[in-house]
Design goal:
The chain is an alpha/beta fold and about 110 residues long. It has one domain. Helix content is about 40%, strand content about 15%. The protein is elongated.
């Protein structure tokens, strides 16, 4: 459980870009989580040791993206679907952040929009 971990920081990935696409932008934030993994190769130093960080994992909203991409009839419906999907993402992320905060840990979120 998170509250029993000695780490001060909790890494969490949110590989999705519904917000960017829902605002007529060009997606790409969904790849930030995988790109960030280089962090795992950083050596411990005086400022940050591996013991300070808990790698919690990432959310998987691939099924939501699949439904939107394959069932929207036109571009405007796709935009509205992305905006609606953000409500799902926000609820799930908020629930987990409450758990992290109640354990008195500092979340570090990579990705998402």
């Amino acid at each position: 459980m998170i509250q029993h971990a000695t780490a001060k920081f909790v890494l969490l990935g949110i590989p999705e870009d519904f917000g960017v696409k829902g605002n007529y932008g060009i997606g790409g934030t969904e790849t930030a989580w995988l790109s960030f993994w280089f962090f795992l190769n950083i050596q411990s130093n005086d400022f940050l040791t591996g013991e300070n960080t808990l790698l919690l994992g990432h959310f998987d909203f691939g099924d939501v993206k699949f439904l939107i991409e394959n069932n929207a009839y036109n571009a405007e419906e796709k935009i509205n679907a992305y905006r609606h999907a953000l409500k799902i993402v926000d609820e799930e992320v908020e629930d987990l952040l409450k758990v992290i905060a109640s354990a008195k840990k500092i979340p570090i979120i990579i990705g998402g929009a």
